[in-house]
């Protein structure tokens, strides 16, 4: 079992920054991938970024490339998402997730563990 708890969401004006954190507890393995997803009202959950728990490889959606940065601290069991130059279209509930499937990191259906989500609202 893996437990995930997100924090750090909030309200920010366009162009601002937020940092999301995900506290990870339970069993984790080097082969796990930690991902961030988001879901806006009326839309499907979409991939944002991912990082390999046992390595340093990172992956990003095109829409957030060069604006968002995913990082991890294995010693503190946390995964963070630094979000800069936020846009109104970034408004969504953001979820931290974990999967042991190392190939398809951008598919939410392959993630077996999810946090409760944290709201991010960006005003124009």
List the helices and strands and how they pair.
Layout: E1 2-7, E2 10-13, E3 18-26, E4 33-39, E5 46-52, E6 58-60, E7 68-73, E8 78-83, E9 92-99, E10 113-114, E11 118-123
Parallel strand pairs: 2-11
Antiparallel strand pairs: 1-3, 3-8, 4-5, 4-9, 5-6, 7-8, 9-10, 9-11
Question: How would you characterize the overall build of this protein?
Answer:
There is one protein chain. The chain is an all-beta fold and 124 residues long. Helices cover 0% and strands 52% of the residues. The protein has strands spanning 2-7, 10-13, 18-26, 33-39, 46-52, 58-60, 68-73, 78-83, 92-99, 113-114, 118-123. The strands form two sheets. Strands 2, 4, 5, 6, 9, 10 and 11 form a seven-stranded mixed sheet that branches. The N and C termini lie far apart (40 Å). The model has no long low-confidence stretch (mean pLDDT 94).
The residue ranges in which pLDDT falls below 50 over 5 or more consecutive positions are none
Cα radius of gyration in angstroms: 13 Å
The helix/strand order is: EEEEEEEEEEE
Number of strands: 11
- Average pLDDT across residues? 94
Can you count the helices?
Answer: 0
- Helical fraction equals under 10%
Approximate shape: globular
**Major sheet: size, sense and barrel closure?**
7 strands, mixed
Fraction of residues in β-strands: over 45%
Compose a concise summary of this entry.
With 124 residues, this protein is an all-beta fold.
Protein traits:
four-stranded antiparallel β-sheet, 124 residues, globular, mainly beta, 52% strand, seven-stranded mixed β-sheet
